[in-house]
Amino acid sequence: MKTPAIILMLIVGLSCAAQNPAIQKALLFLNQESIGYKCFNVRTECHKDLNGDTIFIKHYQRYAFIKNSTDTLVGYNFIQKDSLRHPTFKVIFQPWHHYDGKVLYERLNLPSDTIYSRSKIDSNAKAIIQAATQGQVPTLLNILQSEHLQALSDTLINREPCFQFTLAGEKTPTFLYLSKKTFLPVMTKIIFDRTAPVIEEYYYSNFITGIKLDASGFTENSKHSKTTNPISLGDTFPSFRFKYLSGQHVQMTSSKKVKVIYLSMIRCSACLQALPHIKTVYNKLKNNQNVDFFVCYPSDTKEALKKYVMTKKITMPIVYSDTEKENKKLLYQITTAFACGKPSVLFLNSNNKVVDVIKEYSNDFEEKIYAKLAALTKE
């Protein structure tokens, strides 16, 4: 039981935070109708089950937000332009997002191509929007307006004197740093898991107001006028020819077996979490005469995958798309099944129709695969 003195200190801390002039000035600035800025995002991933390695992934982002009073999802229309380069495997991946309150537009910039898509606001699109705005203006306003906001001791962030605040009693530790000079956000830190930490740090700069959203870059030009619809349930899986890292070609749709296709990518942290489970599933299914199981990295190059397999000590056969033309087309087609960089599993019947899908990693990822496969093989 807390002593009266400790309770009094906590109340005083919360009260002081709410009355801090830095909070009021930051709220006044961030609550304007439109705001733009740069954000440098550092994601630290500690994977205790994968050789204990720690990965630092850096995003260089530009954001533009305009208030939308009728939007109940984030309260803003926005544009996010991201430039990411995986620190270990040198994979260039630049996802851009534009949300106008009704439709989510996506643009994926790759070294040799640009891929466009648009989605109505279903649960999948909502997850993408929430991920794209995490740590940004909606998050900052929620922190600043929280009744649990507590002031900590002042500190330095990149040599800049800052007020330091935290959300007291929250399951997800969250810290906000405001400049003592400008009262603008300098950095936000969010710790998602204390045992195997995933830490997000957002550094802000170059704030401007009175901006307009320029969504012209999300419109397909003539080069991309003939697009291919994304794969969805009930569709026949394309008869692309893939290649194993060992050099052998394979066409997934050539047999009449039931097929399980695990879609992954190097830059995906959830895919790393799923990897031990996929190894178990592969070992269980590799001798099953009625099922073909594929571990597929369609968006990654042979060179990057070879380094990845060696680093992660992966012994499963991995397939990839070995021609640029097929790779581009497949990347676009699997957009709906592989949203937000999450691991996905496609289930194909003997006629190569996509009859089920798992769209993201969860603690029961392995059990879900077995359950869906059992249902498919009974048909």
Question: Percentage of helical residues?
Answer: 25-40%
Tally of alpha and pi helices: 8
SSE topology string: HHEEEEEEHHEEEEEEEEHEHEHEEH
Strand line-up in the sheet with most strands: 6-5-4-3-2-1-11-10-9-8-7
Strand content: 35-45%
Task: Name the overall outline.
Answer: elongated
Number of structural units classed as domains:
2
Radius of gyration: 23 Å
* Named CATH topology of the largest domain: outer membrane lipoprotein receptor (LolB), chain A
Which CATH architecture of the largest domain is right? Clam
Largest sheet: 11 strands, antiparallel
Derived from helix and strand composition plus strand pairing, the structural class reads alpha+beta
Q: Which regions contain 5 or more consecutive residues with pLDDT less than 50?
A: 6-15, 222-228, 336-341
- Give the mean pLDDT: 82
List descriptors.
8 helices, Glutaredoxin, outer membrane lipoprotein receptor (LolB), chain A, alpha+beta, eleven-stranded antiparallel beta sheet, four-stranded mixed beta sheet, about 375 residues
